[in-house]
UniProtKB/TrEMBL annotation:
It comes from the Bacteria. Belongs to the BlaI transcriptional regulatory family. Keywords: DNA-binding, Transcription, Transcription regulation. This is CopY family transcriptional regulator. It holds the Pfam family Penicillinase_R. GO terms for molecular function: DNA binding. GO terms for biological process: negative regulation of DNA-templated transcription. InterPro entries: BlaI_family, WH-like_DNA-bd_sf, WH_DNA-bd_sf.
């Protein structure tokens, strides 16, 4: 798994769209995709976020003429795992039991959630 710095909400929104695409992708293609989704971004804004994502290690940029083409360096699954591990280590001393206990004690786990977890664990 590649080491990537934590992404902001907007960077994550951009990465989710990039992950849906067949790489590599250009800023022009991303502007069109966001416009289709009702989000009008300026070209400079998207370029700034793409540069940040390259700096954070989430993307690589390859120059093709006057255009940069961007390719993810990390999969969505690997990024989620990295972030989950960060939360687990930072808030729960690396203990999954402590995390689940906090969810249970905070009434965040329904009976259905508990049954699904039991089923999942029994299949492992």
């Amino acid at each position: 798994m590649n080491q990537v710095q934590k992404l902001s909400d907007t960077e994550m929104e951009l990465m989710e769209v990039i992950w849906e695409c067949t790489p590599p992708v250009t800023s022009t293609e991303l502007l069109a995709l966001f416009a289709e989704r009702g989000k009008e971004w300026k070209a400079q804004t998207i370029s700034t976020f793409l540069s940040r994502l390259v700096d954070k290690g989430a993307l690589t940029a390859a120059r093709h003429g006057r255009t940069n083409k961007y390719t993810p360096r990390i999969s969505p699954e690997d990024y989620k795992l990295m972030e989950t591990q960060h939360v687990l280590d930072g808030l729960y001393q690396g203990s999954v039991k402590n995390l689940i206990s906090a969810l249970y004690d905070g009434d965040k786990l329904s009976d259905e959630d508990i049954a699904e977890l039991k089923q999942w664990f029994s299949e492992k």
